[in-house]
Design goal:
Number of helices: 6
CATH topology: Rossmann fold
Strand order of the largest sheet: 3-2-1-4-5-6-7
Helix content: 25-40%
CATH superfamily: Formyl transferase, N-terminal domain
Bound molecules: 5-O-phosphono-beta-D-ribofuranosylamine
Number of domains: 1
Distance between the termini: 19 Å
Number of strands: 9
Length: about 200
């Protein structure tokens, strides 16, 4: 299966996926795309010999025209799945619908708690004892699509938002590559009823 990965900057989730894909002939990272200049992650992907594209949103005068350009580049790679691996931009409904069932996001909270930004601070402010990350199919409503996988970590009394973010990131790097494996092997997909279907237990 062919995967296109969209990132914003650091790209540590993308790196975890690329490293895993090296030993998996069924998983091909066709391209990595960033919308910001000098993305560290994009540099790394290029060094790995992966096709990379920098499409700067600031070069476009509307969200629609940026998403259209993004879609055009993505589709030259004919991906089975498009992964939002730390892609910090809201996508237009048209874009999201074009990739229905093929667009996957990782969000650093246990959804439906704490959608949006600053999720780790949100978790500390709420006083929850468990926090984590969610991988879901993307639908037009931000951070609300059908959930594929979740993992939890404890929140410690002494945690700063950064410490909590690091702990969550650790499980993101395990969970996202696993989910990519499930997608590649058709173990999981989005059903016609809009619900996630697991073909067999994992
Ligand atoms: C991750 O925590 C991801 O869940 C969130 O932004 C962060 C991106 O990190 N959306 P990286 O770019 O994968 O290192």
């Amino acid at each position: 299966k062919r995967f296109v990965l969209l990132i914003s900057g650091r790209g540590s989730n993308m790196q975890a996926i690329v490293k895993m894909a090296k030993n998996r002939p069924g998983i091909h990272v066709a391209a990595v795309i960033s919308h910001s200049r000098n993305s560290k992650g994009l540099e790394w992907a290029k060094e790995q010999g992966i096709t990379v594209h920098e499409i700067l949103n600031k070069d476009y005068d509307s969200r629609e025209s940026f998403d259209q350009a993004l879609q055009a580049i993505i589709d030259t790679h004919q991906p089975d799945y498009v992964l939002l691996a730390g892609f910090m931009r809201i996508l237009t409904e048209k874009f999201v619908r074009h990739y229905h069932g093929r667009l996957i996001n990782i969000h650093p909270s246990l959804l439906p708690s704490f959608p949006g930004l600053d999720t780790h601070q949100q978790a500390l402010d709420a006083g929850v004892l468990l926090h984590g990350c969610t991988i879901h199919f993307v639908t037009p409503v931000l951070d609300h699509g059908p959930i594929i996988a979740q993992a939890a970590v404890p929140v410690l009394k002494t945690d700063t938002a950064d410490e909590l973010a690091q702990r969550v990131l650790g499980i993101e790097h395990i969970m996202f590559p696993s989910v990519v494996g499930y997608l590649a092997e058709d173990i999981v997909k989005l059903g016609d009823n809009g619900k996630v279907i697991y073909k067999r237990e994992v």
